[in-house]
């Protein structure tokens, strides 16, 4: 039977996902795990999503206070539910397409992701980072954290690819900041957005 109602499609999808989850996933992390599997149809995320201690609770507290959310791609920016963010008083930013960011990156011989992270550090606001594409964003974040220039309330580290990807994720997991990381090479902007949405929906639905 073909299901046409979008609400029923999501409900049934989540039922199938719940039935396929392995035992042992902490209850507080399940909403994030389910939402990521929902957007990827990949049950590997049930085992490769790593959460720092109380990461979800800390993220929910940050969202309730209206923190800003920084992404490293326009795709992740587009995928984050703006209505949910608005309900929480959260603004979503992506600096990657800003002309001055591109110009500075070219002048310095670095990636736009590096300059974007530096731009975010100067905002002096409570921030959650959702990084789904650029390992260099995570590596620069690690440096900014270590130098005391920024203290993210959560880093979602899920860049996808082959070069610097695993190293950048490990770099974030070695810090003291709360994190949700997709271990290994898997990830993507859709995964980053799905994690943000999963967190926000716990407070807006």
CATH C-level class is Alpha Beta
**Major beta-sheet overview:** 6 strands, mixed
Cα gyration radius (Å): 17 Å
The overall number of domains is: 1
The structural class is alpha/beta
* Mean pLDDT level: 96
Oligomer: single chain
CATH fold group: Rossmann fold
Give the spatial strand order of the biggest sheet. Answer: 1-6-5-4-2-3
What gross morphology would you assign? globular
What report would you give on this structure?
- By secondary structure, this protein is an alpha/beta fold.
- It has a single domain (48-204), classed as Rossmann fold.
- The chain is built from eleven helices and six strands.
- A six-stranded mixed beta sheet has the order 1-6-5-4-2-3, sandwiched between helices.
- Helix 9 (135-146) links the parallel strand 4 and strand 5.
- Helix 2 crosses helix 11 (189-204) and helix 6 (82-88) crosses helix 11.
- The longest helix has 16 residues, at 189-204.
- The radius of gyration is 17 Å and the shape is globular.
- The model has no long low-confidence stretch (mean pLDDT 96).
């Amino acid at each position: 039977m073909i299901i046409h109602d979008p609400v029923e499609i999501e409900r049934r999808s989540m039922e199938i996902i719940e039935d396929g989850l392995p035992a042992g996933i902490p209850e507080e992390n399940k909403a994030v795990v389910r939402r990521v599997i929902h957007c990827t149809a990949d049950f590997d995320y049930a085992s490769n999503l790593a959460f720092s201690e109380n990461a979800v609770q800390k993220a929910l507290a940050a969202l309730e206070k209206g923190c800003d959310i920084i992404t490293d791609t326009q795709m992740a920016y587009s995928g984050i539910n703006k209505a949910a963010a608005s309900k929480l008083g959260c603004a979503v930013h992506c600096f990657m397409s800003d002309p001055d960011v591109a110009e500075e990156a070219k002048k310095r011989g670095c990636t736009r992701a590096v300059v974007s992270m530096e731009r975010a550090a100067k905002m002096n606001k409570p921030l959650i980072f959702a990084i789904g594409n650029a390992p260099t964003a995570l590596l620069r974040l690690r440096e900014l954290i270590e130098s005391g220039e920024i203290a993210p309330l959560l880093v979602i580290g899920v860049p996808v690819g082959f070069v610097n990807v695993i190293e950048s994720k490990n770099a974030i997991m070695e810090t003291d900041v709360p994190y949700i990381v997709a271990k290994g090479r898997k990830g993507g902007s859709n995964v980053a957005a799905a994690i943000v949405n999963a967190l926000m929906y716990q407070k807006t639905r």
